[in-house]
Structures are given as C-alpha cells and as structure tokens.
C-alpha cells in the first residue's frame, strides 16, 4: 500500500515514546558502535555523503546519526511516521513497494524520501529484515516543547534506540511462534573453537566446542537467523553460513576478546566468578561474551533475560550432518516445505513453546540413555492416562507464550497484553499443576509439575490489575482494572466524569450555603469558580461560610468565589488525563518489576510447560498411530519388528488407497551389521532405509516409534546418502555430490553410527559405479564396523555376503502378474534377481516402442552376460543399431481412426438413417 509521504501530523511532533536510551550505557555503546559499524559498512553500505553548510538542522541531525549506522536503514522518527532519506529511502521504497518522494535539497539535489506510519512499522520491519536489511530505529528522545526551551529553531533530540537484525527479533509479529530464532556466533581462538547461540525471545543461551569441520552440520541443526563472526573470518565461513540460510555479520576482533569477555559474562549474569556458571574454554568465553556484547549494542544496553549458558558437549547428541538432515526431511522437505516433513507428522503439541522444544528434540536427538529414558517414561505415563492427557492438553491449549512475553518484559519492549498473557499463563499453569498434583508421576513430569506452582500472589496481582482486553501499548492507557489503584480510579473518574464531579460539588455547596441558585462555572481567565448573586454574596463573605468560600471577583451582576477544594479539584481535573496515563505507566512498570522478580521461576515454568506439552503430544501421537516405546541399551543392535515410515504411512493413509506394509530390520553386532538390500525399482527400498533411520532418531528424541517392537543400541551418528541433486552453485555434479557425501560417511562413521546408503555409484558408468559400491561396502564392514543398510541395483554385490561375515542380503518382494509387476513392499532375507526396471518404466508411461526395444536389448545383454564377455559383445553387435529408428512408426490405433471419422461428422446435418449407418461403420472399425 503506498504511504502518504507528508502527513500533517508530522508538523507537530508528539512526546517521546517509551524505550529511551539507557543513559548509563551511552559512552560504552557509542564507543563500540563506531567500531563495529565501520565493519558493518563493508556489508552493504547505505552511507550518504557528509553534510554541507546549507543543510537544515534536522537534516544535519539525520546525517550525523546515519553516519553511525551506514549498513542499516535508518528509521528516523518524525511524529507519527518513520521516515527514510537518501539511499535508504530508495532501497526501502523498492523493497516495500511504497511511494518514493522527495523532501528538500542536499548539495543542490533533491533528497529522496519515503515513510512508514509508526503504528504499522512492525510489518514493514519484518519485510525488510526478511529481505536481508538491518534497521536502526531512531526515536525522538524529548518532546517538542522541551526542544523549544533551547531556542525556537532547536531540533528535537533523537537517538537510535534499537538496531533490528534477523537474530535479534522479539516481537510476536516478527517471529514464527513454533520456531526458535537463533543468533549464533562462531569463534576460533588459537586451536580452540566454539559455536554459541542464543534465542533472545526466550533467553535460551548455549555453547558447544565446535571444530571448523563441524560448523556446517551444527548450523544445519540450529538453522540460526544470523551468525556473527570476527573480522577476517568471513572468508572461510561465509559460504557455510549462507548455506544454512543465515545472515552473516562481521564484527571487530575486540568484540570477541576472551580476556575482557570474562567480565562481560560475569556482569551479564550477575556473578563474581565465571566458574559459578560452568566450565569455559577461551573460545567459549569469546563466543558467549561476543553474543552478549552484540545484544547489548543492538538493544542499546538493555540485555534480554538470559538463561545460564548451557554447554552442549558434542557426544551428548546424535551427530547428523547437513546432507543427512536434508535427505531425511526432518523439519522440511527437499522442496523446502514444512508439510510432509517428519516434524509436521509428529508434532501434536498444543503450545508454541512445546512445538519449539519438540523441534529441538527432533533436530538434536540425545545419546544419553538416562535422559532418553526419562523422556520416554513421561510419554508412557500419558499413554496410560488418556483422560488425564486430554484434560492436560485442553488446559495447555489456553496457555499463551509465557517464554516470549517474559522476554519482552525484560527488554522493556512489552505491552499490557504481555502482562495479561503472563497472568493467564500462570493461572493456566496452576490448573495443569492441579491436574497432575495427585498423580504418581515419573521424575521428569514430577519436576516439571513442581515448577508450575507458587505464583498465586503474582497471578492475583496481575488478575486484579489488568482489564480483560488491554491495548497493545502501555502508552495507550486504559488497561488497569477499576479498583486496583484508588488514585488512578480517582483520576480516571475525574477525567471521564469531570462534569458530574463538579455537579456533585455544586449541590454540596448549595446545601452548605443554603443558596440554591449557587453555580460552579468555568472560564478561561479564572478557570473553575463558584458564582452567586450580589444578594447572596454577603452571607458567603461572613462567618462561618467565609472560612470555606474565598472571594475572587465581583462583577456587575455576580460575585465569584473559589474554595481550596475547588482549586484542588481544578488542578486535578486539569492534570487528570496526564496523571491517569502517568499512573497507568507507573502501575505497568510496577507490574513488570514484579514479574521480573519472578523471572527465573517463570522461565522454569515456561520450560516445564513445554516439557509437559511435548510428553503429552508424543503420547497422543503414539496412541493414535499405534507406536511403541523403544527399548534402548548400550548394545550395538538395531532390532525393529514391524517398522513403518511415519511420513509415507501418513501419506498412504490420507489417500486411503492401500495400507503401509510394516517391515522388520535386524542388525546385530554378533550377526549381521549390514543389510544389503536389492529389489525392483519402486519396491520400497528407500522407504525402508529412511524409516529405520527415522525410528532410531525418534527413539533417541525420547519419542515412541512406529513399530511393533524396537530394541536399539544407542546410535552416535546417523548418516544418510539417499538420492542427490546437482549442486551447480558449488560447481558439483550429481556424481560429485554423491561422492563427497559418501566420503564424509566413510571418514567419520564410528562403530555406533547408523548409516543408510541408497544406490551408491549409480551416477557413473556401470563398472565404475559397481566398483565404488563394492569398495564402500567393504570399508563399512571392515573399517567403520557400523550398522548399515545398503540399497543397490548392482546385483553382483549380493555375492559379497560369502566374503563379508557381517553382511546379509535382504530384498523387497514383488510379484509378476501377466508381464506386469505388483509391488508387495515386503522386506525379506535373500537377494533379488532382477530390477524390473522395464516394467516400472511401463507404469510410468514410456512409449510402447521404447519399451519393446528396451526388452530386446535387456534380453541380449542378459544372455551375453550368461555366456561370457566376448559373447555379450557379439550379441550387442547383432542388435541392429538403428532398429528403434528403423522400426515402423506405430500403426495408428483403432481408437484414432474412430476419432478421425468422428471428427469429420457434422451431427446437425445427419439424418436418422445416416446416424444409424455411422454407428455401424464405427462398430466395424472398432472390430478391425
Ligand atoms: N512398506 C510400504 N508399504 C506401502 N507402500 C510402500 C512401502 N514402501 C514404499 N511404498 C510405496 O512405494 C513407493 C516407492 O518406494 P521407494 O521410493 O522406497 O522405492 P525404491 O525401491 O527405493 O525405488 P527406486 O529403486 O526406484 O528408487 C513409495 O512412494 C510408497 O508410496
């Protein structure tokens, strides 16, 4: 929608908004900002030239502020609008599709300008952030009256109150409710390196030692919105960061100084000694403190409510590389859609925080047996209690996003609705607690339930204080409930009912003075006054009434008085509106302070809500879909009975055409560690491979699994090489991508890994491909010694089971019926003899002539193979080279002849006899 570029309201600049700069931090911020903005400038500079002498004071102010934020679009507050000038205006007008206009001149040229209304700014902000811009929000820091005191031409003080970047969003409108929004940083200090990340909307802060080779997989796991790196490090990281879909931000080295970092972290967490927070290497300190510094700068000194940093040790979680994540379609499909991903099928959570936690569990399955068992026990508890589960889920459904509302309160970016959300959240949480309190709970649920209580006082306070439907912004007023503050009630009453208050007072005075004609009136000179006729005035000027009534003016017809009470009332009325707003803001600040007094406990409550939601949701899923609790242990076995692929099964169910055929899989360290899977195309090999990888992943995410029974020795890594596409952007062909991914598996898989490999070597010539597949299988067996499922169309490989003791053959069965192939989708021990490729091609609709020709060639090749290499060559030579071309064109079918005849018919001109003849003619053609 085009924006009116010159609204009249801009002429009268209103008072400043909330969220003014924290004056204590200004020197540090300004110092730091200059440094890193110089670097930001290299990353898409939107700078403008220096001011000249002819610029207006306002434009001079704009240019001075803009100079400090060269890489960000400057949203310059003017009244009810944020205005953008120069290149910022050109870029924003194009990105937002709003009108570009001009305002004044600079160095003789028009100044391009565009603007967005303040009340709709969030939407525009989101749009710009999504398009890769950063936005510096510059507010008025005083009201125009204050500015005028310094001189008629003074410009209202302005300053940037926030630098909005993709990783530092907090508003609900700018965030996806069911997804975390991470800001990450990767830091290398000598031979150490660390990846740290934070979701400022929830305060979740984590770090993990991360060698450079792990950066890609880790970013693929976290999918951060923005990654910070030190000056000079972008060369080696930019490609990886871009691949993860994140924005890269380069900052000065000093931001990541590990010596100064210790103090920064201690200060942010209010501890005297870093050891109180855990173990940190120098790289860890550099990374965590770098994040803190960046947050402090972008939020103008106002730190979010950070949780204690948690160290994620690498072997706490199943390692899954980026290609595997993509192939297994964990959170999105290969086409980039959420629908059709594993997460979309398993997510039955009813709260946003629950959805975020479940996403984390799926993307980061655990390797810790105890943690997994704890989570699975929580799921199992709810499986046995369907009534309770339903009640808990119903109560949870009403819960607002406590975590994010709390985050906004801490950043002083909240509104009355956030407080209401917190109040409702606490009250709902108490209900969930009440439901669970009487139960014999497993430890995880017991601890979670305990976190939900103890907020009665805060809940009462918020309940008493807030109206049912408060406005979004505190400055709009009208959100404090009647009865909460006597003074506020009085102010609002005065403001809203000034007339009736005056009328009541007039009646009181008339009674007191026994002058029924006494009136309270108002004029601009005297303000409020009491008026009576000259006849009655004498009484009011003598005792005892002259104690109360004070003479102010005598006119020809009347005498005017005031009282102390009326004077006070007048002041009150005059100030009532302003005072009411002020009092509401005080109440708001007081409530925020009370909420923040409970910050740690409220964060624990939010985390526990998510835990309970995930357990109940996974249990709901398990009961609805017939999933079972897996048995996890320290063995290296992988035994699945009647396993199913959750996503394919759901898709088949939705079509209601067939049923999913469940299959067993048995990999054991003592017997077969590797299954070599052969079978026709379209039989279900890929599905089988993926379903087993997903079952392992779900089990270690703490979920039940789609199987009749599952016994899984903890898996340390999951690797999948399934299908591939070109990666032309990185100059890699399909085959190259396949080989790079295979190399990663062979180089990294340990003996606890679960590897699925689908048709290795198919991207090259038959013999090259076969040799690579052969050697890969041997390497997995002899060197990696991991559990693996290996699907192939190279039937020659099935012979390897004789040589490799821990490899067995399995096949997906089909039945041939009248030359066609019927897929049974059953996996059985044994080897397939052929691939039925030609039959599948027929199903796909290849022309009959091509199919016939393919059959002839296949037969010749197979005969040749049976009879030896030289014979095969002779047979191929025998095949007429151009036979396909030479073959006569397919005879036109009876159908097309019929069509021809019918096309020539003019139905309206046919007599009944001709029509009957036509039918006979058509019938006879059909026969021939
Ligand atoms: N167990 C099953 N039960 C029912 N249908 C299945 C099963 N497995 C696979 N299918 C169906 O068969 C289709 C093909 O499966 P899949 O892609 O796994 O075959 P494939 O053997 O890997 O084929 P290709 O060798 O051609 O890649 C799936 O899209 C699914 O609809």
From TrEMBL:
- Gene Ontology CC: one annotated term: cytosol
Keywords in alphabetical order: ATP-binding, DNA damage, DNA repair, DNA-binding, Nucleotide-binding
Q: Which InterPro entries match?
A: DNA_mismatch_repair_MutS, DNA_mismatch_repair_MutS-lik_N, DNA_mismatch_repair_MutS/MSH, DNA_mismatch_repair_MutS_C, DNA_mismatch_repair_MutS_clamp, DNA_mismatch_repair_MutS_core, DNA_mismatch_repair_MutS_N, DNA_mismatch_repair_MutS_sf
Q: Where is this region: Disordered?
A: 1-24
Q: Transmembrane region positions?
A: none
Segments of skewed composition (Pro residues): 1-17
Reply yes or no: does the keyword Signal apply. no
Q: Which CDD domains match?
A: ABC_MutS1
Q: Which Pfam families match?
A: MutS_I, MutS_II, MutS_III, MutS_IV, MutS_V
Residues of the DNA mismatch repair proteins mutS family domain: 753-769
**GO MF annotations in UniProt:** ATP binding; ATP-dependent DNA damage sensor activity; damaged DNA binding; mismatched DNA binding
- Which terms does the UniProt entry file under GO BP? mismatch repair
* Residue positions binding ATP: 679-686
Family the entry assigns = Belongs to the DNA mismatch repair MutS family.
Database matches in PANTHER family:
DNA MISMATCH REPAIR PROTEIN MSH1, MITOCHONDRIAL, DNA MISMATCH REPAIR PROTEIN MUTS FAMILY MEMBER
* Reported function: This protein is involved in the repair of mismatches in DNA. It is possible that it carries out the mismatch recognition step. This protein has a weak ATPase activity.
What name does UniProt use for this protein? DNA mismatch repair protein MutS
Origin species, per record, is Planktomarina temperata RCA23
Gene (name only): mutS
């Amino acid at each position: 929608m085009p924006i009116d570029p010159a609204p009249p309201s801009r002429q009268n600049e209103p008072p400043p908004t909330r969220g003014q700069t924290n004056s204590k931090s200004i020197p540090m911020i300004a110092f730091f900002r200059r440094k890193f903005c110089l670097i930001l400038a290299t990353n898409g500079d939107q700078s403008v030239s220096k001011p000249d002498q002819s610029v207006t004071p306002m434009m001079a102010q704009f240019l001075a502020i803009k100079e400090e934020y060269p890489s960000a679009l400057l949203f310059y507050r003017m009244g009810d609008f944020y205005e953008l000038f120069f290149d910022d205006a050109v870029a924003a007008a194009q990105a937002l599709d709003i009108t570009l206009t001009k305002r004044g001149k600079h160095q003789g040229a028009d100044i391009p300008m565009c603007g967005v209304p303040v009340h709709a700014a969030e939407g525009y902000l989101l749009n710009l952030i999504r398009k890769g811009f950063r936005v510096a929000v510059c507010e008025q820091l005083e009201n125009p009256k204050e500015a005028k005191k310094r001189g008629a031409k003074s410009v209202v003080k302005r300053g940037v109150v926030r630098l909005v970047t993709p990783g530092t969003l907090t508003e609900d409108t700018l965030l996806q409710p069911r997804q975390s929004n991470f800001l990450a940083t990767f830091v290398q200090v000598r031979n150490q390196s660390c990846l740290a990340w934070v979701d400022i909307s929830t305060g979740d802060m984590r770090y993990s030692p991360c060698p450079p080779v792990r950066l890609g997989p880790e970013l693929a796991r976290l999918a951060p919105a923005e990654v910070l790196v030190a000056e000079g490090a972008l060369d080696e990281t930019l490609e990886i960061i871009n691949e993860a879909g994140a924005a890269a931000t380069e900052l000065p080295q000093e931001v990541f100084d590990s010596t100064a970092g210790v103090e920064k972290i201690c200060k942010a967490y209010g501890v005297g000694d870093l050891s109180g927070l855990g173990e940190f290497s120098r790289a860890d300190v550099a990374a965590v403190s770098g994040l803190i510094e960046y947050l402090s700068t972008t939020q103008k000194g106002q730190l979010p409510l950070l949780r204690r940093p948690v160290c994620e040790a690498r072997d706490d979680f199943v390692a899954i590389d980026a290609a595997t994540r993509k192939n297994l379609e964990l959170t999105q499909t290969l086409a980039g859609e959420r629908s059709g991903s594993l997460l979309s099928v398993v997510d039955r959570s009813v709260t946003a925080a629950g959805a975020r936690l479940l996403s984390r569990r799926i993307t980061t399955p655990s390797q810790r047996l105890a943690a997994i068992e704890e989570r699975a026990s929580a799921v199992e508890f709810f499986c046995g209690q369907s009534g309770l589960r339903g009640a808990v889920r119903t109560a949870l459904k009403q819960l607002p996003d406590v975590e994010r509302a709390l985050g906004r309160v801490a950043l002083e970016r909240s509104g009355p609705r956030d407080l209401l959300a917190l109040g409702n959240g606490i009250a709902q949480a108490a209900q969930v607690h009440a439901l669970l309190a009487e139960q014999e709970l497993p430890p995880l649920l017991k601890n979670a339930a305990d976190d939900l209580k103890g907020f009665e006082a805060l809940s009462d306070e918020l309940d008493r204080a807030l109206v049912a439907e408060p406005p979004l912004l505190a400055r709009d007023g009208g959100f404090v409930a009647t009865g909460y503050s006597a003074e506020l009630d009085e102010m609002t009453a005065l403001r809203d009912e000034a007339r009736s208050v005056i009328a009541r007072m007039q009646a009181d005075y008339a009674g007191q003075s026994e002058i029924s004609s006494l009136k309270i009136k108002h004029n601009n000179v005297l303000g409020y006054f009491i008026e009576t006729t000259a006849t009655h005035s004498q009484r009011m000027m003598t005792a005892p009434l002259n104690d109360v009534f004070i003479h102010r003016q005598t006119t020809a017809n009347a005498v005017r008085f005031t009282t102390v009470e009326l004077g006070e009332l007048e002041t009150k009325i005059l100030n009532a509106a302003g005072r009411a707003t002020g009092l509401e803001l005080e109440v708001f600040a007081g409530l925020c302070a009370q909420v923040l007094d409970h910050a740690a406990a409220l964060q624990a409550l939010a985390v526990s809500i998510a835990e309970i939601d995930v357990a109940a949701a996974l249990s709901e899923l398990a009961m609805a879909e017939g999933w079972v609790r897996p048995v996890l242990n320290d063995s290296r076995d992988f035994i699945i009975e009647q396993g199913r692929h959750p996503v394919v099964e759901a898709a088949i169910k939705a079509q209601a055409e067939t049923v999913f055929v469940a299959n067993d899989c048995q990999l054991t360290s003592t017997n077969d560690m590797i299954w070599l899977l052969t079978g026709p195309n379209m039989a279900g090999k890929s599905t089988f491979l993926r379903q087993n990888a997903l079952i392992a992943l779900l089990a270690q995410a703490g979920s039940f699994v789609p199987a009749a029974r599952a016994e899984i020795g903890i898996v340390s890594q999951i690797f999948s090489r399934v299908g591939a596409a070109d990666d032309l952007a990185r100059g890699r062909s399909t085959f190259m991508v396949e080989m790079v991914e295979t190399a990663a598996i062979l180089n990294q898989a340990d003996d606890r890994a679960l590897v699925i490999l689908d048709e290795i070597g198919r991207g090259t010539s038959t013999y090259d491909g076969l040799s690579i597949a052969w050697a890969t299988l041997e390497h997995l067996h002899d060197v990696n010694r991991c559990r693996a499922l290996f699907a192939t169309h190279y039937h020659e490989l099935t012979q390897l089971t004789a040589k490799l003791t821990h490899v067995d053959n399995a096949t997906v069965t089909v039945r041939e019926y009248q030359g066609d192939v019927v897929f049974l989708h059953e996996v059985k021990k044994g080897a397939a003899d052929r691939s039925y490729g030609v039959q599948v091609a027929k199903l796909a609709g290849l022309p009959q002539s091509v199919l016939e020709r393919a059959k002839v060639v296949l037969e010749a090749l197979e005969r040749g193979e049976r009879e030896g290499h030289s014979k095969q060559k002779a047979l191929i030579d025998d095949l007429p080279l151009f036979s396909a071309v030479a073959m006569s064109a397919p005879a036109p079918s009876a159908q097309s002849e019929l069509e021809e005849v019918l096309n020539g018919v003019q139905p309206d001109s046919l007599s009944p006899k001709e029509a009957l003849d036509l039918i006979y003619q058509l019938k006879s053609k059909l026969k021939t």
